[in-house]
Amino acid sequence: MRTLGIGLIGTGFMGRAHALAFRNANAVFELPARIHLAALADADAIRAERCASAWGFAHSHADWRQLIENPQVDLIAIATPNHLHHPMAMAALAAGKAVYCEKPLAVSLDQAREMRDAAASAGLVTRVGYNYQHNPIIALARELIDSGELGEIISFQGEFSEDFMADADTPWSWRCDPQHAGGALADLGSHLLALARHLLGAVEAVCADSHTAHRQRPASTGSNERLAIRVDDQTHALLRFANGCRGSFSTSWLKHGYKNHLAFEISGTRGTLAFDQERLNELRLYRPHERPGMDGFQRLLAGPTLPGYAAFCPAAGHQLGYNDLKTLEVRALIEAVCGMPGPGPDFAEAYEVERLATAIRLAAREQRWVEVDEL
To answer: Does residue 290 register a pLDDT over 80?
Structure first.
């Protein structure tokens, strides 16, 4: 059996999630290749060595370029701040190595286009970390939509809100720098845009409004220095899908009480489907009932009949978690590298998500409807 050497760049929250997913995928699934944790890189050499040892990687590097050049590494996993995605992915593709990059793909549409084109020219497998699409219950949602269970789809309402930046005294971070990130729209909203496309297809046109509520934040915890904030705290948009569906989109990192509120309601001429990532093992399905008094939503629970779930647990209602979705994402990645077609957005699809997000920013800035094909 083929062995794939994994090189992971980044040791923060997402780096740890990637490391867990690679280790778990080896244990949970019968993969077409063995996963070998070959090398880990972090700019802090001591941290790189410590995390490599703790997470089971054979080698550590303080320079990500050395990791890409490492002959034991076949696949590069990028779990770094957004502005580093472009140079790292381009170097990995130039070295002939598959790339698994966290979202969003890049900090500009030009960078995303270069990454898409480089991947196409190299003929290499790429995947982007829109892990929520790998939830078995989302696969069920798509099946219900595609089968016509809801009838003709006419309405999409989506929201992704959290509260980790709700306090005005939460200090500045790289997420607040438009050269390094892109605000709530990039950090959270890109997941919702990717999910909307995954479920309903392309969006043709948007109009939007963005707002920065906290225009200054402390430079660091306890600091009296205040730094200007030049990214959105919240963004709202109207969407026109190519299939005729109309939709609304909102994202905020200021909304008190919400921790991972990636939610949608999709309505058709025959019913409605609702989901909230904070209850990630459930769908709510409404279909009109002929008997008076029997109207109401049905709760659908994830279970072993859904592809992917049974590998973790043989019983319904026992629940999958966030790291399990990353593990499912890694399985699809490894299968793709081994030539087996499967789910998961590549650089070409992630570019389309970035194009949609860019259209929303333009619409908010110019206060008009923007056709996505303008970009």
So the answer is: no
Distance of CA 331 to the CA centre of its chain: 16
Structure-derived torsion over alpha carbons of residues 187, 140, 303, 16, reported in degrees to the nearest 10: -20
Residues 87 and 73 both lie in one domain: yes
Beta-carbon contacts of 102 under 8 Å, excluding residues fewer than 6 positions away, are 14, 78, 79, 80, 85, 128, 129
Strand partners, 283: 300
Q: Give the dihedral of Cα atoms 121, 123, 128, 133; nearest 10 deg.
A: 130
Q: What is the pTM of this model?
A: 0.96
Contact (Cβ atoms closer than 8 angstroms) between residue 347 and residue 115: yes
pLDDT tier for residue 168 given thresholds of 50, 70 and 90? very high
Domain interval for residue 333: 132-366
- Cα distance between residue 87 and residue 115, in whole Å: 9
Per the DSSP assignment, residues forming a β-bridge with 262 are 160
Q: Which residue has the higher pLDDT, 294 or 351?
A: 351
Pairing of strands 153-161, 246-252: parallel
**75-132 residue pLDDT tens:** 999 999 999 999 999 999 999 999 999 999 999 999 999 999 999 999 999 999 999 9
- 346 CB neighbour count, 10 Å cutoff: 18
177 domain residue, yes or no: yes
Task: Report the pLDDT value the prediction gives residue 352, as an integer from 0 to 100.
Answer: 98
Which pLDDT does position 341 carry in this prediction? 83
Distance CA 212, CA 227 (A): 13
Extract the tokens encoding 293: 């008094």
Q: Does some domain include residue 373?
A: no
Sheet of 2-9, strands arranged across: 59-61, 33-41, 2-9, 75-78, 98-101, 126-128
Question: Does 87 sit behind a cis peptide bond, omega within 30 degrees of 0 on the bond before it?
Answer: no
How many folded domains does the chain comprise? 2
In the DSSP assignment, the letter for residue 111 is H
| Residues 76, 41: Cα–Cα separation, whole Å | 11
For the chain, what is the largest distance between any 2 Cα atoms, rounded to a whole number of angstroms?
68
